[in-house]
Design brief:
The chain has a domain of 106 residues: Immunoglobulin-like. It contains one helix and nine strands. Strands 1-2-7-5 form a four-stranded antiparallel β-sheet, with no helix packed on it. It has a three-stranded antiparallel β-sheet with strand order 6-3-9, with no helix packed on it. The protein has a two-stranded antiparallel sheet with strand order 4-8. The protein starts with 14 loop residues before the first helix and ends with a strand. The mean pLDDT is 86.
Length: 166
Amino acid sequence: MDNAPANEAAPRKPRRARRRVVALVIGTAGALAATAAFAAWTVGGGGTGTATATTAANLTTSVATTTAQLYPGITGANLYLKVNNSNPFPVAITSVNANGAAVPDAGHPACSTTGVSFANTAVTQTVPANGQATFTAAGVSMTNASDTGCQGATFTIPVTFTAASA
């Protein structure tokens, strides 16, 4: 039997439980404060920037001479090309186009009527950035109107290119 007086209060909760609750509240408040402090330093933004495009340089040739043995009546002979690209990007050549009359070498002054021509030719050739490419393009012809003094001559043929960045 319990002999406790009727006026005694109910037993107290242990202090340990109260301390845990207080510690949990303080820890949660601290975490929230740290998150708020972090959020105060994290920012976003926007704006504009600039970029300047380079100016493309034209392709040049070191050599544009015939490689075939020319004779009156030949058509479709090859033109030897060594193309230089000084751009910082590769360039794809899609055609080689005649740009003037064929010129015989200096050792053949009697070759005044060359009869040599070049037909515009479609090609697929990529010249690397700051580099060069060597290739041939068919399209050189020599007519029967060529002077006899053109025998043995090497012809230089001025050309232009249709090309774009690759």
